[in-house]
Amino acid sequence: MSESFPRLSARTRRFTLGVPRGFTISPDGGRVVFLRTKSGTDPVTCLWELDTETHVERLVVDPRTLHADEEDLPPEERARRERSREAAGGVVAYATDAAVRQACFALSGGLYVVELASGQTRALSTPGRVIDPRLSPDGRHVAYVCDGALRVQALDGGDDRALARPESETVTYGLAEFIAAEEMDRMRGYWWAPSSDALLVERADDAPVHLWHIADPANPGRPPVAQRYPAAGTPNALTELFVLGLDGSRVPVPFDEEYLVTAAWDSHALSIVTLTRDQRTMRLFSVDPATGATSLVREDTDPAWVDIVGGVPAHLDDGSLVWVAGSEGGHRLIVGDRAVTPPTLQVRAVLDVDHDSVLFSASGDPTEIHLWTWDGHSLLPVSTRSGVFSGRMSGGVGVLTEQSLDDEGVSTTVVRRDGMAVPIPSFAERPGLDLRVSLGRSGHRELATAVVLPTWYEPGSGKLPVLMDPYGGPHAQRVLNRRGAFLESQWFAEQGFAVIVADGRGTPGRGTEWERAVLGDLATPALEDQIDALHGVAEQYPDDLDLTRVAIRGWSFGGYLAALAVLRRPDVFHAAVAGAPVTDWRLYDTCYTERYLGDPEAQPEVYEKSSLFADAAKLERPLLLIHGLADDNVVAAHTLRLSSALLAAGRQHSVLPLSGVTHMTPQEVVAENLLLLQVDFL
């Protein structure tokens, strides 16, 4: 008997195991280093190298041969993996020198360096457990964080010393603070100088951040975990920057803004990007590493918020700045002082700069993400088939990843300078589901929508109950032209539902006006658009959808939206499953929440409008609340406080607490049974 989809999805970490990722291309384009597990059910990630000339692939590091216990991770590394949504183990991150001759990585808190050509791996002695090691560009030193200190060790057997030590237990050097990692996609806190003789290092002090405690009621003998959590309207961590020289020098780099978005240090400039607390002003500075003096390069403003885009700042060989900014209603690629993309092409990220060429991802149709290059003169499409693409580029060689509705999994191809394509195979398991997904537009706002029907269903043979399956929140999408986006939706459809997935206002890919429609109200536009999509699809399938039986499910913002739906529109939605829902935005973090709702002290009415508590007495439909008690992103207090409000109002509901489970729900048994229990509830 074949394995069930819920069990296989759980074992394969939603079919991500075995997929190549984390690519680094050598400067000459001759080699590609990457991460991949040995099979689609193996959770241990290995380091591999592909020779682009011979097409020979070689296993460089297998963590099992190093006898490292993967479960023995420092708390900071567990937190980093939670922030990055890392589901696997083993070598999940690595860094190379500039020539891509060596790589370093942390494994179970130990520090390792490998010579890529020979595969010779050695463990380095350190005074404690290691976080985020990075080699100097010249490959002579490795920096890492240990017990909050930024340390450097010479690889020739020289000294290991701390360049900066924490002055108190709330201080760290070289680590990204919670907000940077969770909301700005910045997972690092230090950057090597191209000359390898200094580093730009973040000092973060969590002392001002309010202290919360996350307990595990199922294990009362364990003490609660203390966590500094910057809830909306409360203080953030204090961040500072220093240029630390290997000679022991320390130069402060002052800035006034609340947030350090990112930094970059290349042969043209040491750059930092900052953002004001209200997120309406982003500034790019160049820094003199000798004095710490900053010079304003550009300032971007927006009356709503300025978007953070990955991969910038960067520079072409001639020193021209590569940037992305909002202009004429679109996210546009800026080279020098000129926008080189039209406002109708929504730039998602800059992926690489290779001499005079820029590789970036962008959308014309929001359901597709394509690759483009700017070669200094013209825009050239790299991907031509329908789907979702990403990639890297160096030395004239590209790595392209492709997903689509037509093909299973992720396809990875190395494109050499001569145009020859060399595949990097995926070992991912096949989901064993035939998809019946139709992408289109629905409702009067022409929302990007996917309709997922059971493969066994004959049109017009009887109306199906409907399951809305959204995320629905800003800066994230569900409706994309790739099979992996709809595997769970298809499985739910096979249980007898017509499943509708719709992206409403606030989601990316449709321009700045569309994204900013949620400013000041995270509830109304999101809910209106799900109803609009439902009615629009019902018009397209008049004989197939039963609008007297409509359920909605979701996780995180999707959980918030599911609970919101049955509370405010029971005339439309008849049952809801709300997983890890935000229920009161005052309990969620500063950067995300204040971007859309502002300061809760200055605008309390805005927070009230988006909160669920005032609607508790309206509940008249079945509602299942699911929450991991170890969730440090959307803490369990959200569900518990809503449950208390519902109880006080005398409203029946169900709560499923998950002991020891975080926001990711990585445990196999939990992930499998959550799907089964949701179907049983519905």
TrEMBL record:
Domain Dipeptidylpeptidase IV N-terminal: residue ranges: 106-373
InterPro entries registered for this protein in UniProt: AB_hydrolase_fold, Peptidase_S9_cat, Peptidase_S9B_N, Serine_Prot_S9B/DPPIV
Residue ranges annotated for the Peptidase S9 prolyl oligopeptidase catalytic domain, each copy included: 488-671
Biased composition (Basic and acidic residues): 75-86
Spans annotated as Disordered: 66-86
PANTHER family given in the database record: DIPEPTIDYL PEPTIDASE 9, PROTEASE FAMILY S9B,C DIPEPTIDYL-PEPTIDASE IV-RELATED
Protein name from the UniProt record: Prolyl oligopeptidase family serine peptidase
Organism expressing this protein natively: Nonomuraea composti
